[in-house]
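Case study.
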Amino acid sequence: MRREYKIIEKYEVVPNVHKFVIRDPRIAKKVKAGQFVLVMANEKGERIPLTLSDWDPKEGTITLYVLELGVSTMELVSLSKGDSLYSLAGPLGHPAKVEKFGNVLLGGGCFGIGGIYPLAKAMKEAGNSVTVIIEARSNYLLYNREKLEGVANEFFTTTSDGSEGMRGHVQDKLQELVKDGRKFDHAYFMGCTFMLMQCARATMPHKIPTGVALNAIMLDGTGMCGCCRVTVGGHTKFVCVDGPEIDGHLVDWDELFIRKHIYREEEAVSYQSHACRSLTGYEREAKGGGEA
Amino acid sequence: MMPNLSGRVKMPEQPPEIRARNFQEVPFGLTEELALREASRCLNCKNPLCRTGCPVAVKIPEFIQLIKQERYAAAARKIKETNALPAVCGRVCPQEVQCESKCVLGIKGEPVAIGYLERFCADYEREMGLTEIPEPAPPTGKKVAVIGSGPSGLTVAGDLIKLGHEVHIFEALHKPGGVLTYGIPEFRLPKKIVQAEVDNLIKQGVRLELDSVIGMVRTVDELIEEDGFDAVYIGVGAGLPTFMNIPGENLNNIYSANEYLTRANLMKAYMFPEYATPVERGKHVVVIGGGNVAMDSVRTALRLGAETSTIVYRRAREQLPARAEEVHHAEQEGVLFNLLTNPVRFIGDENGCVKGMECIKMELGEPDSSGRRKPVPISGSEFIIECDMVIVSIGTGANPVIFSSLEGVERNRWGYIIVNEETNETTKRNVYAGGDIVTGSATVIQAMGAGRIAAKAIHEKLQAMDRKK
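After joint prediction, the assembly is written out as follows.
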């Protein structure tokens, strides 16, 4: 009775970032920009929230970008084309706010370079002038350029080492644009929590309304467990059902950082004791495993 | 046979000091000998009051008579005439306030252990491989969507499939069972029992669609208008957990009971790292609340290695809403009870983890709207409980996701769905609802009772549709 979520395409886009195209006609038909799915690689895995980064309702496929970080993402990226995910639920969360704002600024880092694309497309279709800035440590970690350039009115890259585009981060480019007299009516950022915080802080003095796609730890993703709670403007919100887009100027970032690190020790245990790492080749063979 | 006036049997169970450290089921179940002895105590009353105490009116004296005749599988089938999940109910129903509270033997002595007997024959039937899959009724050509595979959804599905309707269950999670799977721990309800019940429904032809969050991937309107369902039953259960709304509540290691139990049960964090989902293992755990979910949480914490595991509850002992057996089991296992105590704030350490909870002592005042004496704080009685983990178990609100796209279904001021109590139909035609999404937090058997009412009404409605044609 388990549904099949077949991996149609899978490859490493840039080091450590993997692109998955998965068949799920139900989700492909329903999804809107800014929504996410919960994924399990196997029965013993975690439920991991991943941003829906593209979709094709005709083909019935969705695209996800996975950053390999810990055991659960490692197990996910060890799946191959033709395999099926164990579980895939979505689309979840509210769609991002998309309307005719005027000049819209979008920023993406890491998996968000892939994830920001549907936003760029939707914002453009809604009649906005869209500026996209993406960031990475170095130029070999940038991807998705052609797709983003194809929908954006303006497209910029930034790198920490200056190997491509401006040396710095999304917020540095943003500051530069604003200093040059550019006006933005709306901003939206997707990437790691630190980047989201930096970008939200950069737009605050210029009073640019800012949405951030928060990535909290989740379990069910349907508002049942309360795991993903975050303080927004002094009130507790649940990222899974109130977000994932949250007003970046109201987030209690310090609390969010602390909450994200709750399982740091367990992550280390999980990683060290994982079968691929903890067993020597001999033990693996004794347990009936294949190659060392 | 002469009535047996000896005392009620004792349920054999794991000794408290051992079971408090493992996840195996606490009671072993009655042996055949004990079951026969207990069954012989039933007076087979002409006017069986026990049945009136049961939300699904199980034919109690009839099934106990079958046990007396050593026809155990037949006894299980007798129960199943009105209760689809006897192995579950025998374990989790609060019999002491339902069927057993009405037993005439209880007037002078102890009531018949109806719950133990129910469990005995359901387990016998399952373990001996005697479960019968009912012959399917001729197909009616009618399709029903059941949203949620918890106790009420499973009941609706079981009742309607027997009547020849096509039934699809949509479950949001990756495993079926709802609260039976994510909420109630293995030591109280082994998951293989839930799985066996679901498998039986599938064998009868029920179609189960996992990973299907209705409201998001499909809406109720789409189920009716595009997918051709003639009726929809909403049994989506509990929603967002209620928090205390006191300072420090988002510190790390403060869980909602829903999250804590979902990690431990559904995701099997007690087998971490074999299962990848972690759960914190507090040494000094405090659980706020006094219901069954609080008891499940406080006992799970012990099994996950807590040195102390304490219930903090603002009312008095007699007012603990939990099933008596759960409170008793918790006490035996060494759970501490801090009653007439209410948290005021949480105190964090330098890493953002909880290290203590300030509480205030309470005393009982005048009765409130629930008829219970209202707890009022005693000023100046504040004190601090040191702890490294807190589980908040004070109830839940309505599930928010189903309502993201549900026009025409009216809700009350708490957000729960309003239904016609005779049919459990909502204010939207052919859409029914039951369980926690209608009543707020209640019991498994109450949810099943709601499912039975809805299933009957849905069947009648579907038949009437045919007559109109």
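Observations recorded in class. The radius of gyration of chain A is 19 Å. Residues 96-213 of chain A form a domain with the Rossmann fold fold (CATH 3.40.50.80). We will return to this complex in the next lecture.
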